[in-house]
Amino acid sequence: MAETIAFTLNDKPVSVTTDGQRPLLWVLRTDFSLTGTKFGCGQAQCGACTVLVDNKAVRSCVYPVRNAGGREVRTIEGLSQNGDLHPLQKAFVEHDALQCGFCTPGMILTAYSLLQQNPQPTREEIIQGMDHNLCRCGAHTRIIDAIQSAATALKGGTSR
Amino acid sequence: MNDNELLNLDFTDIKIDPNLSRRELLKTIGGGIIIFFCVGDSSVLEAQRRGGRGYPDDFNTYLKIGPDGRIACYTGKIEMGQGIITSLGQMLADEVDVSLESVDMVMGDTSVCPWDMGTFGSMSTRFFGPPLRAAGAEARRVLLELAAEQLKVPQDRLVAENGVIYDKEQKDKRVTYGDLAKGKTIARRAKEKPSLKSPSEFKVMNKSFTRRDSAEKVTGKAKYAGDIRLPGMLYAKLLRPPAHGAKLKNVDTAAAEKIEGVTVVHEDDLVAVLHKNPDQAAEALSKVTAEFDPSPLKVDDQTIFDHLLKNAGNSNVGAHGGNLEEGQKQAEIIVEQTYLDGYKAHAAMETHTALAQVEGNKVTVWISTQTPFPAKDQIAKALSFDADNVRVITPFVGGGFGGKSAGQQAIEAAKLSKATGKPVQVCWSREEEFFYDTFRPAAVVKIKSGLTKEGKAVLWDYNVYYAGERGAPQFYDIPHHRTTSVGGGFGGGASPHPFATGAWRAPGNNTNCFARESQIDIMAAKAKMDPIEFRLKNLKDERAIRVLKAAAEKFDWKPAPSPSGRGLGVAVGTDSDTFVAQIAEVQVDKRTGRVQVKRVLCAQDMGLVINPEGATIQVEGCITMGLGYTLTEDIHFKGGMILDRNFDTYELPRFSSLPKIETVLLDLKNEPAHGGGEPAIIIVGAVVANAIHDATGARLLQLPLTPERVRKAITAIA
Ligand code: FES
Ligand code: FES
Q1: Predicted complex: ipTM over 0.90
Q2: pTM for this one?
Q3: CATH number of A87-154: 2.130.10.10, 3.40.50.300, 3.10.290.10, 1.10.150.120?
Q4: Cβ pair B214:A139 closer than 8 A
Q5: In this complex, which of B217, B398, B621 lies closest to A138 when CB atoms are compared?
């Protein structure tokens, strides 16, 4: 049944009238044309579809859009501010922490959520925090390095 | 093969391609200085003819110097993560004498790029690179000619540097490339072989650059096939059989048709439900009921090996030498083993996707594909369109690994767009991806080998079934040897595989290396020799020796016969003209059979390294991906039914699977560039299996090396 769901999307108030059961992933990708959020498995197995809801990583392929009502949703498109890359994005670029780039938005947002909860994670903690995000190209070692250096940059108060 | 051989190209006979005439092309790409370049027929380029067609003989590479001074390279190659968007750009920038930032790569658009058979086989740098460099050198020569005219300075006084040409005796006499190109449309074709820069002149090549596409990829701006949006587009979900070989008996779409906004298409076996939202199309498809005849296939993942052997046809004898009977006589120790390897999925994170827009008798299709030009022909055939009226555009591809070479999803999208008159996207679900993947084929390798008590290998009788010949010929110094192969690596109509098979990153070589390097390790252990010492004693190939020694030295290898209890393994292999050697350290939980790979060191001889950073990333990617086929990945199936449908049962390598990875690239600037996207994956299975033997004394003969198999092998020797 169609219902109107209002939330904040990348810092802007939005609303959508649709079936509230629909996965947030497809609402973002089709209704809002925000295609940075990727589909990889549809069953919460890979993390490609990760977005932030109230600054926490959620798997948008299994997250009913209704649950986003009244919350703050952030996708990869909304991570950089005024054209400045977020330290995590910068670190991914500098460390070449990607190949095909398909897993990358999900990796960055999962890492964002991880650093929110644990601003100075150990290597072991990064591995644990990221272990359910898949990357077929094998960029893993560089992703860990990128997250570590972003954590350091964020501690230095580079931005946000 | 050396640079000269690679450049033995035909520069003279340029015919106009009927599909893409140069005049038409000039209209499309606009003014500037355009260099056409032709790869002619040469023995090396025969390797390009695997697709049944070589490069066209008019031109296949071209580049444009625009009035803004930017250099655009048009190529049918595509970027799927392997990084040629950077390394090809480096090659061009260096020869034209501009910075890498001034090079634009235009890739995989059949309307402006010259024909190319596809991006696979680690061939972009090896085979496309040299003509690209030559085209760059020719462009530089044309620019110098133009500058000499314009500046009225003899050419030998001119210096080209970073997009500017100046008189070395009067430096303010200068002109930029952009100014030379301004207001002109000059189409030149290379007439004679231009001379390429020597390594001492490199400014951009052989230097590390980070990826050129990462800013787009970390911000979500990078567009993949599924990200293209057209007004009025529909998303399609197709009815799929429950098993390979199951035929559709009847279907009832009435319930789906009643849903608002749903369009149903039913043409022969194609049953599709379309909606403006993909999730709602999927929802509607679940309302379609259908009956299928059961699949006649009986084989499963346990019985497949017997099935394959039973259906094996005649074998091809490949490399051979000496006399096997003589070898048998000389041998004091005989080792006979059979190695098994199951089906593997490509499992790129991006599933097969296409968006097609049919307008009248023309169609444009955005595809996630490694083969835009073959896809164009397939689509033309499926729609009965003239190939000239089909345009394929390849946005970024979210991983390929050989799996994005078939165009099924594009044909589906094109047919549905034709049927509905709307742009249609087909994006496979993960289940469809596992169902229609062209799996790496299951394979069997039987080896009988022999050695003397002193550890000299004298006999090698190698028989591979269904992995194909890549990596099958051995490179050891064994006087009496023979390699035979049955059933290529790819399934055809008459193949005994129950479903489609195809190229999977370094096709066949992973299986062949697992068998060969395990067997060599067994022989070393029988001779009670250190596995590196044994290999060096039996190798004569100098590149193999050099790369193995480099690995041993960097690892600080201390010789000891296996099993030493240390958990160290070694393996050597060759692929795409590159040689690799790896040493791995593992920890085995003997109770559970669980294996943790702690460290992998990879030494690689790939000749001239265009982008050392990019090459290192490919090595890391290969090792990480390789751990999957080595430890966990195997397709489970029963009859035509694929039992693995998502990542819960088909387990890819994860962060927690990671070893410490060290890469050593041999510095060989003066040699031609060899392949880099595949070699380092080929010996991961072998090196880990050998390390497990070193840790436990148990020998694993079947990939993947699952805890259950490891436990069993340990129990068997206890
Ligand atoms: S698409 Fe959501 S976790 Fe894979
Ligand atoms: S970069 Fe390709 S899947 Fe991670």
Answers
A1: yes
A2: 0.94
A3: 1.10.150.120
A4: no
A5: B621
